[in-house]
Amino acid sequence: MRGRYVILSLIMLVLGFLVAFSYQLTKEKQPESGISSEQWDKEYETRQLLIKQEERNAELQKQLSDTQEKVRKIEEDLKNEKQLYFNLVEDAEKYRMYVGELGVKGEGIEVTLEDSSYIPEGENVNNYIVHEGHIFKVINELLISGASAVAINGQRLSHDSYIYCNGPVVTVDGNQFPAPFVISAIGDPAVLDQALNIAGGVVEQVAYDNIVITLEKKDEIKMNPLLQEKKS
């Protein structure tokens, strides 16, 4: 009888050991967080989707940056084109002003050329009156110095104007004018005045030819378009 109890005790001891061992083995196989293998698979799949989405976001961000750069270049090109067109319009207006198609006004200078008031006895009168050469000297110096428009006794000059002397009068584009000759020029008065009065310049040369020359700075000079003048 005692032998049966001993055998039964041994069997119970072994059974308890097996149960304990099985529990311990099952515990070690499960994740420490207590998440099942199915949940673990779902979490892994979700992480993979997030990684793919992040990669897609990075790709889209690069596409956006490239597109923004293209837009910036287009805007820069448009800006340059706008500036180019503005410059062309500005140049066109300037050239129209130079050829006399536009009326113009602005500060400038007036140069008056007069015949000498004194002619010594026995001297040639032609050596004491204004000729086209004197007018040309003044006009050329004014244009070289930046004058944007020039007129003689109100007759505005164009790119194809002609001037010639006929005795005591000067003909400008078919219109005759007697002395004194007032040459008006629109431009920087200080620059134009300095250019004419430079040592050995136009003022000294004209005065040496017995011509009376005076300069006056003007706050505003107005000149009509040449087309308007031809109609009148």
Automatic annotation (TrEMBL):
Keywords from the UniProt entry: Coiled coil
UniProt KW Repeat keyword: no
| Coiled-coil stretches noted in the UniProt entry, renumbered to this chain | 50-84
Which Pfam families is this protein grouped with? Answer: DUF881 (PF05949)
| Source superkingdom | Bacteria
Q: Please name the InterPro entries in this protein's record.
A: DUF881
Homology family: Belongs to the UPF0749 family.
Q: Which PANTHER family match?
A: UPF0749 PROTEIN RV1825, UPF0749 PROTEIN YLXX
Can you name this protein?
Answer: DUF881 domain-containing protein
Q: Which organism is it from?
A: Metabacillus indicus (Bacillus indicus)
